[in-house]
Amino acid sequence: MEHEQHGPRRWWVLAVGMFAMTSGCAFQFGLPYLIPVLRDEGLSLSRAGLLAACPTIGLVLTLAAWGAAADRWGERWVLASGLGLGGLVLPAATAVHGPFALGLCFLLAGAAGASAHASSGRLILGWFPARERGLAMGLRQTSLPLGVALAALLLPPLAAHGRARALAVLGALSVAAALLVAVAVRDPARTDGGAGARAANPYRTAVLWRLHGAATLLVVPQFTVSVFALVFLVDERGWSPSTAGPLLACVQVAGAGARLAAGRWSDVVGSRVRPIRQLAVTASGVLALLAVGAFTGSAPAVAALMAAGVLTVSTNGLSFTAVAEYAGSAWAGRALGVHTTVRNAVAACVGPTVGALIGSTGYGWAYALVVGFPLAAAALLPRPHEKSAGPTSRARRERAGLDLKPG
Question: Would the N or C end of the chain have less CB density within 10 A of its end CB?
């Protein structure tokens, strides 16, 4: 898969992959926009929130399996079948009765749509040469905020006419994406002949484990900032939600731009790890300023919050690119599945844990606590020329940008 795919076709493949992942993310992470209509149906806030989380639970449960399937059978049909199945389950949810049956449908749709997270990353690894892969993966990572934005735009007005219409539109988007993938996408050339099971296991060295661990540590400050940004501005700074919302939307847009800039930076310097380490250290400094601002109630806390919101998401695409490149064509799907699973599992714990901390000690101590997570991630990242066993380790390290230039 290190084979370079030439011509403009790779950008078309990227565009189709982004549309596919955006469609999947719209229902996997956008169902909270249906909470008002679910409450109108008589559900409590806690039950409605649990239903909205069911697609994410399904995604976490099946990511590794979808990745293994993509390694074995290729990206095109795994991506198309998962999105197609998820798109068919969503309209079926309009015919069921009771929260348990509805939650099961949401869980199954999320589990099917998880194929997009493993397969779309593999497509980028196969179609793009290393000098463009960081930017391409950064573009791919913008699909998640685009999907959530699409849900925010479509679901509230559709839900005004009933839950069924909103779910039908989400299902139609997913099916359309599946059909587009089946028609327009071709699997990239593979150097392993599809013999993933016979390839050397990259998990026999510490490099992938350290990449997973560092990226997971960086999830903690990312979700600490994003989950509580609105309530911080409202509770601590006295802003109204209508004023804080547009500002935080701008932060999301800037964060997407930061992902792209970081990806391009990694392409230019020939390293994925070096930019991650430098961005992590910078994010730690900004989080420290945010903690000080929260303790003192000073105005610069708002600027620090915005900067933290951008910096803490800037490394997402880089970590996925490094994992896929180091794993290689035979193991990339499984490695990306593990990577996404672990990150999402930890992210799910951040909200209740940090929320309890804020409730007992305040925002200042919560922000101060997460200052150390980016520093720990920077220390955990693998170093250039670090010894790793196995005859293919050198090639893997070069693919992952760990040896190309000093880090």
Answer: N
- Does 217 share its domain with 291? yes
Which among 115-119, 249-253, 293-297, 343-347 has the top mean pLDDT? 293-297
Mean pLDDT on 314-332? 87
Any domain includes 283: yes
Looking at every residue in the chain, the average pLDDT score rounds to 83
Same domain, 214 and 346: yes
- Same domain for 321 and 391? yes
Query: 23: phi > 0 → left, psi -120 to 50 → alpha, else beta; which?
Result: alpha
Q: What pTM did the predictor assign? A: 0.74
Phi/psi of residue 201, each to 5°? Answer: -75, 115
272 part of a folded domain: yes
Query: How much is the average pLDDT of 265-273?
Result: 92
| pLDDT recorded at residue 390 | 39
> Dihedral (C-alpha) 154, 224, 252, 134: value to the nearest 10 degrees?
-110
Residue ending a domain, among 130, 156, 191, is: 191
d(CA 227, CA 233): 12
Return the higher-pLDDT residue of 110 and 400.
110
- What pLDDT is stored for residue 195 in this prediction? 47
Are 290 and 364 a contacting pair, CB within 8 Å?
no
118 pLDDT more than 90? no
Q: Which domain holds residue 105?
A: 9-191
Max avg pLDDT among 39-48, 223-232, 286-295, 320-329 = 286-295
- Domain end residue (candidates: 135, 165, 191): 191
Query: Which of 120-129, 177-186, 221-230, 367-376 comes out lowest in average pLDDT?
Result: 120-129
- Residue 384 sits in a domain whose CATH number is 1.20.1250.20
